[in-house]
Amino acid sequence: MRARHILLTSLIILSCLNANAQRKDIIINDDWKFRLSLDVRRGSEYRVDLPHTWNTQDTYSGVTGYHRGIGNYKRIIHIPSEWEDERIYLRFEGANCTTDLFINGRHAGQHKGGYGAFTFEITDFVEHGSDNTILAKVNNAEDIEVMPVVGDFNFYGGIYRDVHLIVTGQASISLLDYGSSGVRLVQDSVSHQYASVRAITVLTNGKDIDMDATLRIRVLDGDKTVLTEEEDITLPADSDIKCEVPFHIYNPHLWDGRRDPFLYTAEITLMADGKSLDQVTQPLGLRYFHFDADKGFSLNGRHLPLHGVCRHQDRAETGNALRTEHHDEDAKILAELGANAVRLAHYPQSEYFYNLMDRYGIIVWAEIPFVGPGGYNDKGFTDTQAFKENGKEQLIEMIRQHYNHPSICVWGLFNELTPDGDNPIPYIKELNALAHAEDPTRPTTAATNTDASLNFITDLMGWNHYFGWYNGTPEYIGTWLDNTHKEHPDLKIAISEYGAGASIYQQQDTLARPIPESLWHPENWQTEYHIKNWREISSRQFVWGSFVWNLFDFGASHRHEGDRAGINDKGLVTFDRKVKKDAYFFYKANWNKDEKMVYIAGRRNKLRTKELQTFTAFTNLPEAELFVNGKSYGKKTTDEICTVKWEGVKLTQGKNTIKVVARHSKVKVSDTYDCTLQSDYQDIKPQTTTK
């Protein structure tokens, strides 16, 4: 009875909110009964609320064999008798990885793919006026026919995003267009003077007779109607059709990234006899952009170097089962950093997060989970028809579901594949052609870590290089960029990943590169790595984008390095989002010019062993002054990457107070911390590897 009460209450609320349209959209996240499928004992299930994953603990234990199998999710819903003439759907925003749905014990459908939304129509499976049983069997076991088959991240199992019960009339905007809204807003031509757009809408008619209707497109600026267009149509009996309605806006207000992320709202309404049958609203951010092999990226005619980060969708306490407040916090941290771009690696992420990127004005690289082995064993491509069809389906899902987000400017097709064995190149060409057919307005890209002909298929290309961490020196990335640009002058180049591990608990006086696979990842090397990498990357205009790996530490069960097992610690922020590492503030000083700041690096190195020290600060003001125990060590001019250094600074035995003050005109900011000099303490750090 409790499930019925919640459902009916939700219906009342949603009916009030949606009084002019027949669609009802009810989130049914609460009160599911869960058990691992292998536990067949009666009474073994227990209550969970969605989003949920069963891998919140075992993935971080340092054991690669975390549970990958089937989890059963069961829920009772009451279907009112009043819905007998309606169509009923279940929409899953994300479940990893293969989902089989049963309604009242009958198999109602299957979806393969862990990162896109999918919808099942259950009209013919429910009993009206009765309680109905939903059973979703979700399987995160490895499957060589489903992308991804390998990855340097955790494959959390479960229904980890929202589930919707949706009810429509017999005629509606389709919910079965690859899990999308059923509406694509194609920006054929956009300038500061004029925008030409087509609203492509998939409509469905479940009746056994043809039906006359009207499709109305209304564009809103807040509460103000900018334009209304209508198209009279005939919906054939028991079929779906695609309807295009063009519209034009003169002197449009453009979506202009971080500077002005303005959004119109497009309201698409299916009508008959003057009444609304169904309605969908979508964001409409009008913009135009260009990638150039020499000049990089431009937005609305303005050169805009894309400086950003990569993001995984997991965190310490919840795995990948993130709630809106988690996405809000991540977006806020990203915006505070001053980044204007993000690579959402290595898979489509939550619709809610794309909405946040629209509103913040952050350019998005969205990609499918076509992931290669990187520096590990196994292979990311299987040359079977089932695997290839699944990848194409996931690509179509991503593009159609997220088409209307103005923040998305590139579609990513793969990450770190190799041509050995089954050669993925012919298949990549197929994906590239499919992406252009689905969306001719956005270029394709990919991320590579090898020299192979697969690097020259997509419109743009990114490289995952870790010079100064896994090999070489940090400065070498500049040499590599220059050589690559010279050898391939027409290639549009990005750095899709660069980064170094760091533990906030591991500090040292000596600046020395650690062994990446070791249990020692001192924070100061990550800071130095990013200073030197960014100096090279930022000085080359032809680099259309660069993406730090990673914004946050993330789960990778097979890793045994740094201060704990099961974590990739290359994040600028800790896994729990509580501590921003020194490198975060380096980028903030470079990228966030609105918030005046100064930050002293090395503040967690509380115990110093050397009398003479070098102190480094990051500030977006033109000069800064260092004080040690109240004594000035002089003013220094900030360099071109917002860094100030004082060398040969003498500490006294015991406690020392370090303070840096940055000033400009009437603006004054400062930062302070204490450290202790204990010169007889041996600064010898372990370099033990995990092998």
UniProtKB/TrEMBL annotation:
Residues 1-21 form the signal peptide. Belongs to the glycosyl hydrolase 2 family. Keywords: Glycosidase, Hydrolase, Signal. It comes from the Bacteria. This is Glycoside hydrolase family 2 protein. Residues 189-287 form the Glycoside hydrolase family 2 immunoglobulin-like beta-sandwich domain. Residues 616-664 form the DUF4982 domain. GO terms for molecular function: hydrolase activity, hydrolyzing O-glycosyl compounds. Residues 69-166 form the Glycosyl hydrolases family 2 sugar binding domain. Residues 294-591 form the Glycoside hydrolase family 2 catalytic domain. It comes from Candidatus Avibacteroides avistercoris. One of its GO terms (biological process) is carbohydrate metabolic process.
